[in-house]
Design the sequence.
């Protein structure tokens, strides 16, 4: 069995469904807990709470579709849920992916303004501004993702296939759309994020008056976002477009390029990694709300209860047998 066959038979039909199932279970619990914490500390968090709430909503749009995708790949790419639901499932994935990128970018910009321009800008920003920006993000993401719905997802000769891009007949047009989509939905937010945190890093290194805790929290958030983009988003966009380009070459030359096998395998792996954003996104909740400190307090509270209960148990006196 060569590498491509192994990825089709083992990774795509066994490992990928297992990843989807795990992400559904862990992501559901983590995001419920995260959103609950956001709502409990709504006033404390300030204007950034609106973006955290929308980040959670983006995750909940995608997580319910994972069991259906897991069943699809486990049944060796046999879609039994209908063509309309196939498009809805893929649309929800795109809303989650680009909505998450959009709101993570908003959080990064707000953090940047809070550190670099705390008096000039942050004092003028209200909750209304955050809500308006969130509405704009959803509109932009919807406009970017909606054309995907018009591309065929079900192959004419194989009605059980549910493409995450489109069928071979329309792959050339889809590649053009995908490249533009990648630039507007991923590259531009990535450049904004890099610009913000590049400047923040310079400010934190030059100014000694900034509180040490603020520096640490800013650097931690930067690390989390770099992790998200490096693991989930960058590989997916690179290998998705390369895979589409390989299919375009095959449709014109009737022959795949020599690098197709490597790209195919990398693209399969990136499809598993990209869905992990629904599990990694709650790390942003953990950072912003300093939940690790809350967990330590909770564990300490439970330990005190346990000790008090244990010490209150009467000690049995020794008895002669």
Sequence:
């Amino acid at each position: 069995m060569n590498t491509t066959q192994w990825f089709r038979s083992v990774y795509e039909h066994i490992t990928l469904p297992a990843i989807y199932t795990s992400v559904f279970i862990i992501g559901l619990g983590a995001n419920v807990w995260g959103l609950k914490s956001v709502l409990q500390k709504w006033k404390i968090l300030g204007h950034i709470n609106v973006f955290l709430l929308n980040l959670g909503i983006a995750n909940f749009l995608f997580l319910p579709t994972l069991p259906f995708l897991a069943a699809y790949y486990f049944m060796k790419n046999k879609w039994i849920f209908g063509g309309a639901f196939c498009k809805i499932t893929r649309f929800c994935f795109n809303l989650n992916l680009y909505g998450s990128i959009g709101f993570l970018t908003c959080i990064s910009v707000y953090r940047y303004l809070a550190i670099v321009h705390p008096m000039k800008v942050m004092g003028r920003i209200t909750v209304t501004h955050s809500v308006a920006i969130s509405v704009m993000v959803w509109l932009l993401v919807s406009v970017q993702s909606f054309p995907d719905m018009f591309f065929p997802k079900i192959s004419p000769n194989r009605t059980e296939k549910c493409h995450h891009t489109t069928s071979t007949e329309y792959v050339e047009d889809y590649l053009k759309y995908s490249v533009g989509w990648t630039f507007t939905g991923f590259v531009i937010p990535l450049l904004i994020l890099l610009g913000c945190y590049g400047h923040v890093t310079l400010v934190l290194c030059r100014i000694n008056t900034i509180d040490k805790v603020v520096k640490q929290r800013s650097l931690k958030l930067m690390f989390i976002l770099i992790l998200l983009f490096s693991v989930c988003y960058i590989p997916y966009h690179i290998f998705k477009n390369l895979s589409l380009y390989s299919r375009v070459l095959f449709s014109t030359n009737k022959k795949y390029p020599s690098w197709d096998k490597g790209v195919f395998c990398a693209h399969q792996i990136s499809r598993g990694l990209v869905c992990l954003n629904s599990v990694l996104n709650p790390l942003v909740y953990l950072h912003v709300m300093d939940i690790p400190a809350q967990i330590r307090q909770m564990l300490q509270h439970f330990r005190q209860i346990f000790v008090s209960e244990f010490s209150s148990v009467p000690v049995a006196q020794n008895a002669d047998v």
The first helix runs from residue 3 to 40. The two ends are 72 Å apart (CA to CA).
